[in-house]
From TrEMBL:
Pfam families: ECH_1 (PF00378)
Alphabetized InterPro entries for the sequence: ClpP/crotonase-like_dom_sf, Enoyl-CoA_hydra/iso
Superkingdom per UniProt: Bacteria
Protein name stated in the entry: Enoyl-CoA hydratase
Segments traversing the membrane: none
Family: Belongs to the enoyl-CoA hydratase/isomerase family.
């Protein structure tokens, strides 16, 4: 197993396994983690021996979202909306859209909390296997923002469920996520890795070109229905939340942990 600071990568029997490796921080995302994750996805996509890509996480939680403690972003002395837009466009929009359109099937294995930007890691994957204790939430309305940057909510949850989750900030259980079609399978926590690898192994036996064509067919159908245009336009709307924060308090409001720590108690 090869290790970078925050990402593990291994490949065997046609399956590449990429592991988020910040368990001490509930796999909160730093810029370095996202850069390493993008590099790992690219490596797996370029490896002719890899047919399926699995994204998993070490520790009790899949991901607590963006690391909100500050100090992780190399920022200019004066933070402007232009700077925020450029930084987020690269790591939160370009990366996620690229991961969604990788030419190989991807599977996310999710346990524990998957909060806000954690959704931006599992939603671009083709399939999601969830442990029974998995919870999915996007509580950033508390921060005056309408949802995370990769705004797949309507597509993943349906319009009314998306509004409920955003308006209330409550978490969606694994069972609920499976019933609405956001999650493919729910399994006991102890079986999560084995069940995910079994599914990946089944898919790896399929012809690679057929898998690629099937994935393109589904993704392009969503795009014709407006997915890609919606993701782009809602990202622009998202930036108005940052603009408001800048005008009100010079941006630190976005770094508040109020209301977020409660969701990670006992991690």
């Amino acid at each position: 197993m090869e290790k970078t600071d925050q990402i593990l990568y291994e490949a065997e029997k046609g399956v590449a396994v990429i592991t988020l490796n910040r368990p001490e921080a509930a796999n909160a995302q730093t810029p370095a983690l996202l850069d390493d994750l993008d590099a790992a996805f690219t490596r797996a996509a370029d490896d002719e021996d890899v047919r399926v890509i699995v994204l998993r996480a070490n520790g009790r939680h899949f991901s607590a979202g963006h690391d909100l403690k500050g100090g992780n972003w190399p920022a200019p002395e004066k933070i402007t909306l232009e700077w925020i837009y450029a930084a987020e466009n690269r790591r939160y929009l370009e990366y996620t859209l690229r991961w969604r359109n990788l030419p190989k099937p991807t599977i996310a294995a999710v346990q524990g909390k998957c909060i806000a930007a954690g959704l931006m890691l599992c939603w671009p994957c083709d399939l999601i296997v969830a442990a029974e204790n998995a919870e999915f939430s996007d509580p950033v309305v508390h921060m005056g923002i309408g949802g995370v940057e990769y705004h797949g909510h309507t597509w993943e949850l349906g319009a009314r469920k998306a509004k409920e989750i955003l308006f209330t900030g409550r978490a969606l259980t694994a069972g609920e996520a499976e019933r609405i079609g956001m999650v493919n399978r729910v399994v006991p926590l102890d079986d999560l890795d084995a069940a995910t690898m079994e599914l990946a192994g089944q898919i790896a036996e399929m012809p690679p070109f057929g898998l690629r064509q099937a994935k393109r067919a589904v993704n392009q159908t969503q795009d014709v229905q407006g997915f890609y245009a919606a993701i782009q336009s809602v990202f622009d709307i998202h930036q108005t939340g940052h603009g408001n924060a800048l005008s009100v308090s010079g941006y630190p409001i976005l770094m508040r942990l109020d209301g977020m720590k409660e969701r990670l108690k006992g991690r």
